[in-house]
Each structure stands twice: as structure tokens, then as C-alpha cells.
Amino acid sequence: MKVLLVDDSVIIQQSFGALLASAPDVEVVGCAEDVATALAAIAANPPDLIVLDVRLRGHDRGLDVLRRVRLQYPGIKVVVFSQFNWSSMRKTHLEAGALAYFDKATEFQQARDWIAELSLAHAAQPKP
């Protein structure tokens, strides 16, 4: 499963990217820090899954990426991975089409494990 990390923290890109890369059948194909870079990366090499932060570089919002992906690339799965563990934020992103919402502070390993399970299910699907 090809994964794109969209997070403005280089530390998260490196640490969570390395953790994800240790999962079976997961390949981190890129990182983006803002909406424009994320959308360009998606268009150039559409991933199977996007791991998305709520707040991106500058005033960019992950929700903008999520909404664009749902409209333009409905087959791409999106998981939110954020430091904002507010129920309203979680609800907004899930209603916008995210499959899951994980808190960076407390759910680092759970997010990796969930994505690993998703990858295994993805690998088991018949390819066209």
C-alpha cells in the first residue's frame, strides 16, 4: 500500500514514516507540508492512503486536502493523525470522509497498527 504523509513537522514525517515503513506491505511514497504540495504529490503519484495532519504549513488546513481528495480521488483512503484531540475536530474530519482520526500524543502506535491492518486488507484485495 502506497502512503503519502501530509504533515508540516519534519520530525513526524521522519519518525512516523519510519514506523509505517516497518509495517508489512506499506511503502511511504512521499511527504508534503502544505495543501499545494500535497495535491501535487497526489496528482503525480496517487497513493492508496494519505496520513493527514489537521494543521499544515502556514494557514493551510488538512481539511482542505481531505475535501479535495474526496471529490477528485474518491478511491484514496485518508487517515487523520493530529495533535488536536478535540471531539469537534474528530467529528468534522470523520464526517468529511476520513476513515479514522488518531491523536499523535497518545495513539502513535495504534495508528501504525491500524494502518498496517489496512495495508494487509489492501494487499489481499484482487488487483484488476
Beta-strand percent range: 15-25%
Shape: globular
Tell me the CATH superfamily: Response regulator
Number of helices: 5
CATH architecture type: 3-Layer(aba) Sandwich
* pLDDT averaged residue by residue: 89
- The CATH class turns out to be Alpha Beta
The strand order across the widest sheet is 2-1-3-4-5
Q: What can you tell me about this protein's structure?
A:
The chain is of the alpha/beta class and 128 residues long. The chain has one domain (18-123): Response regulator (Rossmann fold, 3-Layer(aba) Sandwich). It contains five helices and five strands, in the order βαβαβαβαβα. A five-stranded parallel sheet has the order 2-1-3-4-5, sandwiched between helices. β1, α1 and β2 (27-32) form a beta-alpha-beta unit. It is globular and about 40 Å long. The model has no long low-confidence stretch (mean pLDDT 89).
